[in-house]
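Minutes, project check-in
Item: structure for the 383-residue chain
Input as provided by the requester:
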Amino acid sequence: MDRLDNTIRPYAWGSPTAIPHLLGTEPTGEPQAEMWMGAHPGAPSRTGRGTLVEVIGADPEKELGPAAVAKFGPRLPFLLKILAAGAPLSLQVHPDLEQAKEGYADEERRGIPVDAPHRNYKDANHKPELICALTEFDGLCGFRDPLAAAGLLDDLGIDSLKPYVDLLHAHPEDAALREVLTAILTADPEEMSRTVAEAATACTRLGGAYAPYADIAHHYPGDPGVIAAMLLNHVRLQPGEALYLGAGVPHAYLNGLGVEIMANSDNVLRCGLTPKHVDVPELLRIVRFRPSDPGVLRPEASPDGEELYETPIDEFRLSRYVLPEAGGAHDLTRATPQILLCTAGTVRAGEHDLTPGRSVFVPAGEKAEVSGTGTLFRATVVA
């Protein structure tokens, strides 16, 4: 197996302290948002044999296994991250696989450069995600019941929000949610900025359930995404709990440290809380306008100590092992590629001692025996 040297991405919303604290390093004073583990071409992990892209490219079947190559092609189909949100991320949705293929082909046909700021589809893949909390973790996920959203907006006592409140009482629910989100994102910018400022003041005064939206407004003053965020479920994960984010589900991470895994894609349609391009017509085509429970996931334990986070897709499979002090070795050998990430304690993986934030890549079929005391996350595929 190969010890991984991973890139930390300094996005503006990142926490300056959470990842350094996990790694046991000194903060630089700059935001450290994500540490990437995998073979994403934007920042592939480095090994003693070259980058993980180079290692896999030299012999895909040996590194990934025949079954994974047959199912996903000669590439690692997932990206594993440590994500540290010190401020809210953009409110966003991801396309399903068919939408991604269509959107990518259309933008290629129209000759839009892949790096153009108004480009929606960077590739032809979908981007399901799973976030597992390492600390208390706040996020937004899926639409609230429209009547609950109407009550939240109405209690702010702002006249310019009354039309949205009335719309949210209409039926059917999906049409009501679509009409309100459309109205928010297409409103006159100056009028919306004033409404957001009033809402921010009211949320600060009311506190409680309104506190997350006061914080969002602090980071994104005047942004229509502040009002759009109030249409969504607020969820607070405890360490070990997770959220699965499928296609078309609007979401945003607000604050906290977690392990994130996703299909290898950069396709994002933004709804707000960002200075970046918001393509309202395409966004409305992708969003699934139905109220839903956030669906907090808790791992399902097996007799061998593996705790699995069940998801409905095959590009990734995330589980963890909480290794006790007196425990023996665990054989994690699989016929599919793996990344093993330590998040607590010290775990021996093959010849490597892993401390928090350190990881290894295990080629398909290679012996993978782990021991020690700590928490180990295991990322692989279903093939």
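Outcome recorded: The chain has a mean pLDDT of 96.
No further action items on this chain.
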